[in-house]
Design brief:
Distance between the termini: 11 Å
Largest sheet: 8 strands, mixed
Strand content: 5-15%
Shape: elongated
Protein name: Signal recognition particle receptor FtsY
Catalytic activity: GTP + H2O = GDP + phosphate + H(+)
Strand order of the largest sheet: 3-2-4-1-5-6-7-8
Number of helices: 12
Order of helices and strands: HHHHHEHEHEHEHEHEHEEH
Membrane topology: Peripheral membrane protein
Bound molecules: guanosine-5'-diphosphate
Subcellular location: Cell membrane; Cytoplasm
Keywords: Cell membrane, Cytoplasm, GTP-binding, Hydrolase, Membrane, Nucleotide-binding, Receptor
Structural class: alpha/beta
């Protein structure tokens, strides 16, 4: 239900636009498909994924000859579901509990909701009875460390930090070491999301990995890229840059409650073939959900 509420704006915007596109039309024809294409692009599904979806619908229209516009919702929903399910990881489980501690390294640019997502995740894990340790690896911004400390207090989990300006890799090392010593289940390490240039980003992230591997050779088990779902094409661009700089294993798409552009989830999942694992649908501690492709499409099409 909270998913439906969180995606209210996306689904409303989407349906209003589709309804407008088919007004006075009974048959799905080229004109309707052109309108639909515009609606998908305006919802930030992205050009490549939009073209893919339109081609699939065209093929159906071709095959079935007469397709009523009243069926367009249903057909679109089927094609989008199929697309999401083609991403082999569209339904992921939370963490692998056989890996202990399970280390999640969180990447993304400032302002996308990285700190909030870490806080929400810590809360989820803790309420599942898991022992969590946070690492304040964004040492370039005092505010980032302060915010994460606030979240650690709110959730009630320990945090490892150093002084501002210290080496993020050193924070990662300390955090994993402390988690191992405490026999923790999950480690969540923040990093600085500075996209100043690709080589620097690559070097920074690989150093953090390399140094934490001195404590735990198989870490990190997850590299979670946080993207702001309300920024549309910027989110695509950031996904491109981070995936080029490091091996991103999962995505968290935030702020889907405040946008009519939830289509970004569909496009990003399709284009990067990296599982969208979490979606943020509000500012509160509980407003983070494990992504489920089918549920998402259901809510989107409510
Ligand atoms: P960071 O700079 O990436 O660490 O971003 P923050 O975690 O500080 O978040 C930036 C702002 O976005 C804050 O005001 C958060 O409350 C807000 N925010 C984060 N996630 C969500 C979300 O899913 N929905 C909404 N509406 N706001 C969010």
């Amino acid at each position: 239900e909270s998913l439906d509420k969180g995606l209210e704006k996306s689904s409303q915007g989407f349906f209003d636009k589709i309804s407008r596109a088919v007004i006075g039309k009974s048959k799905v024809d080229d004109e309707v498909l052109d309108e639909l294409e515009e609606v998908l692009i305006a919802s930030d599904v992205g050009v490549n994924t939009t073209v893919k979806i339109i081609e699939r619908i065209e093929a159906r229209v071709e095959r079935d000859k007469y397709v009523n516009t009243s069926e367009l919702d249903k057909i679109l929903r089927e094609e989008i579901s199929a697309l999401l399910l083609e991403n082999p990881h569209s339904q992921t489980k939370n963490i692998d509990e056989t890996k202990k501690p399970y280390v999640i390294m969180v990447v993304g640019v400032n302002g996308v909701g990285k700190t909030t997502t870490i806080g929400k995740l810590a809360n989820q894990f803790k309420s599942q009875g898991l022992k969590v340790v946070l690492g304040a690896g964004d040492t370039f911004r005092a505010a980032a460390v302060d915010q994460l400390v606030i979240w650690s207090e709110r959730v009630g989990v320990p945090i490892v930090k150093q002084n501002m300006g210290s080496d993020p890799a050193s924070v990662a090392f300390d955090t994993v070491q402390s988690a191992v010593a405490q026999n923790a289940d999950v480690v969540i390490i923040d990093t600085a999301g500075r996209l100043h240039n690709k080589i620097n980003l690559m070097n920074e992230l690989s150093k953090i990995k390399r140094v934490m591997q001195k404590v735990l050779p198989e870490a990190p088990h997850e590299v979670l890229l946080v993207l702001d779902g309300s920024t549309g094409q910027n989110a695509f661009e950031q996904a491109k840059q981070f995936t080029a700089a490091t091996e991103v294993t999962a995505l968290a798409v935030t702020k889907l409650d405040g946008t009519a552009k939830g289509g970004v989830v569909i496009g990003i999942s399709d284009q990067f073939q990296i599982p969208v694992k979490y979606i943020g649908v509000g500012e509160k501690m509980e407003d983070l959900q494990l992504f489920n492709g089918e549920e998402f499409v259901d809510s989107f099409f409510k």
